[in-house]
Fold:
Amino acid sequence: MPATPAWPPRALPRLFVEQPLADGAAVLLEGKPAHYLANVLRLGEGAEVLLFDGASGEWRAAIRGATKKRLVLEVVERTREAEVLPPLTLAFAPVKRAPLEWLVEKATELGVARLQPVVTQRTVVERMNPARLALIAVEAAEQCGRTRLPEIAESMPLAKLLSDPPAPILFADETGGRPLGEAVTPGAAACILIGPEGGFTPDERDAILAAGASGIGLGPRILRAETAALAAVSLYMASAGDWR
Structure:
């Protein structure tokens, strides 16, 4: 009688590496990644993992040498080509640490290509830890299967974003706006702009509209800034992103 297979099937560990990957390449892992594989998962020579470098897709690799502090892996084959991300920038006024980190994590999982912090008149957090946010994005990409990391841009004033937007701006207008699904075109680049706690000031709203931005509505309820951001991204992905 055949043995009953384990369920759910055990997935291979998946890690981001900065080294460019290619068939037959040797990859040296040290520090936390090596500790995780060797000491936490207790993987030894011959064990396989999945690697991605943010540019060339996803690769299967095998451990060829292992100690407690370092591993040498050999890239065996490409398992997935590099993904094509929807051309979406999420511009947002930074919020406090825990909601901000949650926002970066979930935006990464949803497939945002670029994260752009924006300082507005009511922004309460102007200083962030870029290295910490980048680490959160990496961990989210490892977990959700992304092969490209989101770009996390340096913070900029709202006026600078409006003077040189990366794409047509769709801003969450608290006074009401078009449903987001009607404001986007499949395949077209977009920049979703979310205000701070307390929203945009009247002067800022006037400036946003004067810059040619389109107001979008996010339903009848008042949303927290980080909730509004993820709601807007979800609507975009359903209407014009990679959920189609």
